[in-house]
Design a protein that fits this description.
alpha+beta; eight-stranded mixed β-sheet; 6 helices
Length: about 190
């Protein structure tokens, strides 16, 4: 059973993050952009890697803490690893981090054509708040603006716990095993 590790990246991970960005997102950020994110205290950056090959980054997620908002800027899974519950794991962890930072809501933009990402965000209670016409300069495609309120409410905390169970079950079905440290990080939220 393959293991995965969820962690905060270090400088040694920048090239892998930029490579995943190019492959999955079309090159949103450069190496210097990722370096800037590592140094930014308002940036929450997470990666998924394979402990058997730590240089291989298969997932990437980030949000910026802006006032009381978690603005999700990136969420990507390497194409060979999509549809296995790993995107849910990253989004769950971003929302957990937003709660820990006492943020009230989460927002993001997504391509109108990215139906799998839209379904993921809707599963986590995000709702469309608007549309940005011609948002993506390479294609002229519009972006939907998604919004999720009430991150500090008890009902959301309960929902996080349910999502945690769902994600762990989904990963096990895909025969993924969380590396011990990653499992401990996810279990920590359950105890808080």
């Amino acid at each position: 059973m393959p293991k995965i590790e969820l962690k905060t990246p270090k400088y040694a991970d920048i090239a892998g993050m930029e490579s995943l960005d190019r492959t999955s997102l079309g090159g949103i950020w450069t190496l210097s952009g990722y370096e800037r994110e590592l140094n930014n205290p308002n940036s929450e950056l997470l990666i998924l890697s394979l402990p058997s090959n730590p240089e291989t980054i298969i997932g990437l997620a980030c949000f910026w803490a802006i006032l009381e908002e978690a603005h999700i800027t990136l969420l990507a899974i390497y194409p060979d690893y999509q549809r296995q519950g790993l995107g849910k794991l990253l989004l769950y962890k971003l929302l957990e981090k937003a709660v820990q930072r006492q943020l009230e809501r989460a927002t993001l933009e997504v391509r109108v054509s990215n139906q799998s990402a839209i379904a993921l965000y809707e599963h986590f209670g995000f709702r469309v708040a608007g549309e940005r016409k011609n948002y993506y300069p390479q294609t002229g495609e519009s972006a939907l603006i998604f919004w999720r309120n009430d991150l500090q409410r008890a009902a959301f905390q309960e929902q996080l716990s349910k999502w945690r169970q769902e994600i762990l079950s989904r990963l096990a079905q895909g025969e993924w095993q969380l590396e011990e440290e990653t499992r401990a990080k996810i279990d920590t939220m359950e105890m808080q």
